[in-house]
Amino acid sequence: MSHRRRLPYVACALLSAVALAACGHKSSHPTVADANNDGAYVDAGPVTYQLQISRALNQYDAEDSQYVRGLPAGMSPNLPPTEMWFGVFLWAKNQTNRPQTTSDNFEVVDSSGDVYRPVHLNPALNPFAWTAQTLPPQQTEPSPSSIAAYGPTQGGLLLFRVSTDVYANRPLTLYILSPSNRRLASISLNL
What we know:
The chain is of the alpha+beta class. Helix content is 15%, strand content 34%. It has three helices and 13 strands. The radius of gyration is 22 Å and the shape is globular. The termini are far apart.
């Protein structure tokens, strides 16, 4: 067989080898997601997280008033005009073969470097509140049978009390942190 006739066979064999080599490789999710793609997945340690939605909340709105329930004692849902509630709704999945615990350590940082920590909500009073959980293999948070999963956001709520200056200091970035405050992943947030 001439050299020219063998070339298509060699090229086909090489393409087949490349295709077969890719089989069985698990693609890794990035550690950074972009706000232009709500729903992007990020890996933070052994758990994969997905931003369902992020938005300003109005405590006087019928839907949003449910999200500001279970505040710490003495904290009012009514804020001064220089502050607002900001909700980040997350979903997580343990894609490993061993139980894994989801994070309860998060922060939102604006472009001027201001850092906001989530308000700890009482999950007995707020069924949408994000709470760290140990997930069995292939299980999700919120649980598929929970109110948070069936709600309009389909995610667990991280509630932040932020300055209205965040509108001038966009973009906002959510960081998923380890227990020792090491940044594991980041998600750019819509506002």
